[in-house]
Every structure is written in C-alpha cells, then in structure tokens.
Design goal:
The structure holds two protein chains of two kinds. Chain A is mostly helical. Helices cover 70% and strands 0% of the residues of chain A. The chains are: A mainly alpha, B mainly alpha.
Chain lengths: 70, 237
C-alpha cells in the first residue's frame, strides 16, 4: 500500500533502504544492550542469593563473639 | 542510580527523531534536481555531523582526563568514540546507498569527502585494538587520551581541508545558499533528533558501564575474590 505511493523512478527503494539500515543498526545496538542488561541482572540475582544465604545461615560457634563473664 | 533521567531522555529522543523523519517525509519539498532520493540527506548528513562532533567531544573529554587523571573522564571519552563509531557505520552505509541512487556507483575513490570520512573512521577503528593491546590500566587510559586528543584535533582540520578542495560530485551541503527555508528547518530538526540519539545512547552506555563496575566490585567484596587482571579495552571504574 505504502509502496504504491512512493515515486519509484526517483530512487524510493534506496531511500527506504537507507532509513531501514539506520533502524536495523539501532535495533542491533539495543539488542546488544539488552543482552548486557540481562547478564547484569543474572549477576545481581546471584549476589542477592548469596547475601540472603549468608543472612539465613546461623554463625558457626567459632565465629560467635566471646561472652564476658562477670 | 546511574540511569537517572534516562526514561525522559529516551522518550524525548523517540518523539523528536520520529517527528523529524515524518517532517522529512511529508513536509520537506522534493528537491528539483535529485527528487525523492534527496530525502536520504536528512538522515545521512545529521548522522555524519553528529558522529564527527562525537569524535571531537571525545578529544575534549580526554583533555579533561589528562588534566584530572580521574578514570571517569577516560570512560566518557571511550564511550563517545564508541557511539561515534557506530554512527560512523551508518554514515558509510547510508552514504553508499545515496551514491548508488544518485551517481550509479556505491563508492568513488577520487571523491575527497568520502575518502576523508573513511580515513577518519578507520583511524578511530584502531582505538579499541590499541586499548586492548595495553595491559596496564593507567598507561592504557593515558595513551588512549593522547590518541583521542590527537585524532579529535585531526577531524576538523581534515574536513576543513576537504571543504577547501573543489568537489567532483559530492554536494557541498552548506555555504552554497541554495537550501530553501523548509529544507533547512527539516534538516535542523533531524540534526536535533540525531544529537539527542547520540546523547541518549551515550548516557545508556555510561550507566551500563558504571553499574557493571559497581556489580563487579560488590562481587569481589562478597566473595572475597582477588581482583582479576583482565585485558580489556573498556575502562573499569
């Protein structure tokens, strides 16, 4: 439909191609950014689990602070 | 934390860029000489200007790095070059498409504007491998800054010299006084959109790199890891 309205004799396919190339490059860049953010989210979840695990684990006896006898 | 204001900036960029391309498609008049194919002008020229300006800005940021020795300036300079290189790819591809539809060939080796842009692009193409080749972080940052300053100074000199030369077929965009007001307005809107796009991508990249650095540091603290000596091109904050 849109192609019918474009002046084909004036290089319209090339104009469309140029804008599509720009869009494609932008999308590729955004996809790479998305992958990087997903990797960061995974690392963050790992650290979050680690912190939770340490908080839930009771400290071992040798790590307990010494009691002061009065 | 690192991405403060990025949502608003992204929305503004999308609105201005989509608006600019709509103005280029429906408001800007058809060129008497080139007809519809001249519409590539509103994409190709703003891209080229913003990419080259990005290289110059990277040089200025590198000066700041050498003055203060703070790694954040090195990161900013690195990211500016990184984004400009991506836009540079788009400049070369859209330029080749425009050349094909206007002149019937994808590339002309005796055209100073085309070849000089390619030289600048290839020059900056060596920036990342150069960083990668230097293991010591401090030395890497210093050498990269010197490179960014020297290459950033080369960009305006190179294009000044090219513009002083008689062009074979590449049109002189400015200075001929032949661009009507509506075309100028469209061009300026497209330039604003492209500059916003550059700044948004730049901010995204900086935010990602800072967040990644913080994450790495937290990981080291939690796991009591010794800092891993990696050879990397990207500055680590």
């Amino acid at each position: 439909m849109f192609a019918d309205t474009l002046p084909g004799d004036q290089g319209a396919p090339y104009v469309v191609a140029a804008y599509l190339v720009f869009l494609a490059l932008l999308l590729i860049y955004l996809a790479i950014m998305g992958i990087r953010v997903a990797r960061m989210e995974r690392d963050l979840t790992e650290l979050d689990d680690l912190v939770r695990e340490r908080r839930d684990t009771p400290p071992s006896p040798e790590q307990e602070p010494e009691r002061i006898s009065t | 934390m690192y991405g403060k204001g990025l949502r608003g900036l992204s929305v503004a960029t999308i609105v201005v860029l989509v608006g600019a391309f709509a103005v280029a498609a429906f408001y800007a008049p058809l060129d008497a000489d080139q007809g519809f194919r001249q519409k590539i002008f509103y994409l190709h020229v703003p891209l080229a200007i913003v990419a080259l300006a990005g290289f110059i800005v990277a040089g200025l940021l590198a000066i700041q790095h050498l003055r203060t020795r703070e790694p954040i300036w090195d990161l900013r300079s690195y990211v500016a070059i990184h984004i400009s290189l991506i836009l540079g790819v788009a400049v070369l591809v859209t330029g080749a498409i425009w050349a094909k539809t206007s002149w019937g060939v994808w590339w002309l080796w005796d055209e100073p504007t085309l070849v000089s842009f390619l030289i600048v692009f290839l020059l900056y193409g060596t920036y990342t491998p150069m960083r990668f080749a230097i293991e010591d972080r401090e030395r890497q940052a210093r050498y990269a800054s010197v490179f960014a300053i020297a290459a950033g100074a080369f960009v305006p000199i190179c294009f000044g010299a090219v513009r002083a030369q008689p062009q074979e077929v590449h049109p002189q965009t400015f200075g001929s006084g032949e661009l009507p007001g509506s075309m100028w307005l469209t061009f300026l809107v497209c330039l604003a959109g492209m500059a916003l796009l550059f700044y948004t991508l730049y901010r995204f990249e900086i935010a990602t790199k800072l967040a990644r650095g913080r994450l790495r540091s937290l990981r080291r603290q939690l796991l009591d890891d010794a800092p891993v000596q990696r050879r990397s091109a990207a500055p680590i904050i």
